[in-house]
Design a protein that fits this description.
Blueprint (H helix, E strand, L loop, with lengths): L1 H18 L6 E9 L3 E5 L6 E4 L11 H4 L5 E8 L8 E3 L1 H17 L4 E9 L2 E6 L2 E6 L15 E10 L4 E5 L1 H18 L5 E9 L3 E6 L2 E6 L20 E10 L4 E5 L7 H8 L5 E10 L2 E7 L2 E6 H11 L8 E10 L4 E6 L1
Antiparallel strand pairs: 1-2, 1-4, 2-3, 4-5, 6-7, 6-9, 7-8, 9-10, 11-12, 11-14, 12-13, 14-15, 16-17, 16-19, 17-18, 19-20
Length: 348
């Protein structure tokens, strides 16, 4: 009889202890074992609790035993009350992610730098993994030196936006380098001067010119400063990664802008034109551009002159040949103004 009483009291005690656990509670538990679909955890309840594999990590293909190690204690969230067998269902990833969000909020407040691997390259940027949480780094927030990226590459990042409710995490790689970039710019600007020839690497090509990195400072090489000859597009002359020498033609210290010139490193062909050409002279030229108002003819290396449209029509009528870029033609210089860099032509 005393034994029955003892057993009853013990069961009642267990029942009271078990009743303390309910859905939504954060509990500590020690990993006990594993089965085909769950991690078995001892949380101090009457029976072992279960952590379904999909509640371990947000990442796919992870090994449960590497995240929740046998014999180690972790915190879990009870996501389902005890079933008929008295077993609670737990989640590790929800507690883990809550801590991750908290740490990210602190990192943003403290302007900390965090490192994260790229797990996907998408239109407009890259996706990175931060302790199982996915964050987005827009293309515009990737430092130019890190522009050629692959899955698996690690980026140093600062947080721009962290919003747990909206599950929104936006990061910047460029922001990590801003202070050092600014310091580098000031350092470069203090050492350079107009007329100086500098060496730099082509880092970006646009319709209006080329950006050249000179000791960490992106300088603009305008389309008009590429060559004395006509250039249709900068990519016709230069390519990304090419190292060039260029002359500094302008420095704006307030805006941290530097303008470069390639053509200034070559003799001005118009200086030679004043010696070699004169009105009334017949010369052989090469068609460089054809427009609806006429054609531009290179009459001396780097020197172009205009052959009017009516002359082109006359030439094509008499020769039964259509003029195109690259064709050679004999022309006469009828007007030559070296000061204004203008030459007018006629057929020879």
């Amino acid at each position: 009889m005393p034994n029955n009483t003892a057993d009853t009291d013990f069961e009642a005690l267990l029942g009271q202890y078990d009743y303390r656990f309910k859905k939504g509670d954060i509990v500590k538990g020690i990993v006990y074992s594993y089965d085909s679909s769950n991690v078995l955890v001892d949380i101090g309840a009457k029976n072992i609790a279960l952590v379904p594999y999909f509640e371990i990590s947000s990442q796919k293909g992870v090994n449960p035993e590497e995240i929740l190690k046998k014999g180690e204690e972790y915190e879990f969230l009870i996501i389902q009350d005890a079933d008929d067998d008295g077993r609670f269902s737990l989640s590790y990833k929800r507690v883990h992610m809550a801590y991750v969000w908290l740490e990210l909020e602190k990192a943003k407040q403290n302007d900390e730098v965090i490192a994260a691997p790229i797990i996907q390259i998408v239109k407009g940027g890259v996706i990175v993994d931060i302790s199982g949480l996915q964050g987005f780094v827009p293309q515009g927030q990737i430092y130019s030196a890190n522009s050629q990226l692959s899955v698996g590459d690690k980026l140093e990042l600062k947080i721009l936006t962290v919003d747990k409710k909206q599950n929104n995490l936006i990061l910047s790689n460029k922001k990590v380098y801003e202070s050092s970039i600014e310091e580098s710019r000031k350092n470069v600007l203090s050492k350079i001067e107009v007329g100086q020839v500098v060496k730099g690497e082509v880092v970006r090509i646009t319709n209006f010119g080329v950006f050249v990195n000179v000791d960490g400072l992106d300088c603009l090489l305008p389309l008009s400063q590429l060559s004395w000859k006509w250039v249709e597009h900068p990519s016709d002359m230069l390519s990304i990664g090419q190292v060039i020498d260029a002359e500094i033609i302008d420095i704006d210290t307030e805006k941290n802008r530097v303008s470069l010139s390639l053509k200034n490193l070559e003799p001005d062909p118009w200086d030679n034109a004043a010696k070699e050409l004169q009105e009334g002279m017949d010369v052989d030229g090469t068609i460089t551009r054809v427009k609806n108002f006429g054609a531009f003819v290179e009459v001396l290396k780097g020197v172009e002159a205009l052959l009017p449209q009516n002359c082109i029509e006359t030439y094509q009528k008499n020769s039964s040949k259509e003029l195109k870029v690259g064709d050679c033609i004999k022309v006469k210089i009828i007007k030559f103004n070296s000061k204004d860099r203008r030459i007018s032509l006629d057929l020879a």
